Amino acid sequence: MSKELELFWKEVREIQNCIVNVLLINTAKYEGDLEKLLNDATFETICSFMELIDGVRNNELRGEIISTISGECIHSGVDLHDCCEDFLECSDI
Q1: What is the pLDDT at residue 93?
Q2: DSSP secondary structure string for all residues of 35-90
Q3: Inter-residue contact 40 to 33 (CB < 8 Å)
Q4: pTM score, whole prediction
Q5: How many C-beta neighbours within 10 Å does residue 23 have?
Q6: Mind listing the pLDDT tens digit for each residue in 14-60?
Q7: Distance CA 82, CA 66 (A)
Q8: Which contacts (CB < 8 Å, 24+ apart) does range 83-91 have?
Q9: Cβ contact 15:58 at 8 Å
């Protein structure tokens, strides 16, 4: 495995650990509302992955999402992590 791929998986592992720990610490605030808990868990996870693609989490890593139709990067000039709130559900807790 290349050094770069190891760095990528290290970031993925850190995302998972962070989300799990934050939600474990804050579980009580959901008062048994599993839907809100799952929405927040997936929201935070997806936003973290968008930060990884955007190069925000680690300046040595950045990704592109390429359209198989046009061959173009579909998010040129857009930070994907900034769009999360416009499209994903999360609680107001």
Answers
A1: 59
A2: HHHHHHHHHHHHHHHHHHHHTSS-TT-----B-TTT-SBTTTT--GGGGHHHHS--
A3: no
A4: 0.90
A5: 17
A6: 999 999 999 999 999 999 899 999 999 999 999 999 999 999 999 99
A7: 19
A8: 83/50, 84/43, 84/46, 84/47, 84/50, 88/39, 88/42, 88/43, 88/46, 88/47, 89/39, 89/43, 90/39, 90/40, 90/43, 90/44, 91/30, 91/33, 91/36, 91/39, 91/40
A9: no
- Torsional sign, CA 19, 24, 26, 32: positive
- Residues whose CB is less than 8 angstroms from the CB of residue 7 and which lie 6 or more positions away in sequence, other chains included: 58, 60, 61
Cα(88)–Cα(93) distance, integer angstroms: 15
Q: Check pLDDT > 90 for residue 92.
A: no
Structure tokens at 58: 């680690």
Q: How far apart are CA 74 and CA 7, in angstroms?
A: 24
Q: How far apart (Å, rounded) are the C-alpha atoms in residues 50 and 86? A: 13
